[in-house]
TrEMBL record:
It comes from the Bacteria. It comes from Carboxylicivirga linearis. This is DUF3108 domain-containing protein. Residues 1-25 form the signal peptide. It holds the Pfam family DUF3108. Keywords: Signal.
């Protein structure tokens, strides 16, 4: 039972990155923050008492693609424990989505979850004509569940929300302002919000310093997190809006994702303090 619990920590951390920076984007904002070919890497740390263990990694990737002969971005995120920790808790989680290149509206989203003995698959097809989502969900040995979900305006899947949020003009918001977001999670649309906490300098474990924007999600009951402000995220205060550190408290201990490096960025990282 404990191994199954531990096995889900990396997945929680990946979702923490996604949920915690998912600000409500203006639907008509154009993408200025990333491009095809971008890769961003993170180390995943787990805390037991006073010990932080680097037990896994999370990678985000963007490729130029086509979807039904239309220009698209193919965005992927993969979270995994390192092989030498697999005997305790093996995690291999993959998220991917195709979006348009103008407003980042999703076409198709998939999530494959392998966490210890737990396995699940999700697939969403987004219909722009009737504003619905066709969802296919299969968890463990349960039968495939298919349903139609109303697709409200400015509502995105988890992965698209990360990249949509990177194109927001944060100067519009005041410190401590609550900003609502709407996301499709586990086959349901959740209306949640975060608190903008202003600007702060942050230092990574390898000594790099960045000027950042800071946020704390206010999550409602019914999501994968309890309600409250037990998660904090810092993103670069430049045109890239790259998450640098994400911290989240869980039932036992804490999890943390720390920025390692990035390739193929659209803009220079001007937020780094040399």
């Amino acid at each position: 039972m404990m191994n199954n619990y531990l096995s889900r920590r990396l997945s929680v951390l990946l979702l923490a990155i996604i949920v915690s920076i998912g600000l409500k984007a203006q639907c008509n904002d154009y993408n200025f923050s990333f491009q095809g070919g971008e890769v961003v890497n993170y180390h995943a740390y787990y805390n037991w008492g006073f010990i932080w263990l680097n037990a896994g990694k999370v990678d985000f990737m963007v490729d130029d693609a086509k979807y039904n002969n239309k220009p698209a971005y193919h965005i992927k995120a993969h979270g995994a424990t390192y092989n030498n920790y697999d005997f305790l808790f093996k995690v291999r989680d993959t998220f991917e989505v195709y979006t348009d290149t103008a407003y980042l509206e999703p076409f198709e989203y998939k999530r494959v979850t392998n966490e210890g003995s737990y396995h699940a698959n999700y697939k969403y097809l987004f219909n722009r004509q009737n504003r619905t989502i066709s969802a296919d969900i299969q968890k463990e040995e349960n039968p495939l569940e298919s349903k139609i979900i109303p697709w409200k305006e400015c509502s995105f899947d988890l992965l698209t929300m990360v990249y949509k949020a990177r194109n927001i003009d944060y100067s519009r918001y005041q410190t401590n302002e609550k900003i609502p977001i709407s996301m499709v999670v586990d086959g349901e649309v959740h209306d949640i919000y975060i608190r903008y906490l202003g600007k702060e300098q942050i230092k990574t474990r390898n000594g790099r310093k960045f000027n950042c924007l800071k946020f704390s999600p206010l999550l409602v009951e019914g999501t994968i997190f309890k309600s409250g402000e037990d998660m904090t995220v810092w993103v670069t205060d430049d045109l890239n809006r790259i998450p640098i550190i994400v911290e989240a408290k869980i039932l036992i201990g804490s999890v943390k994702a720390v920025f390692v490096d990035a390739d193929g960025l659209r803009n220079p990282i001007t937020a780094e303090i040399k």
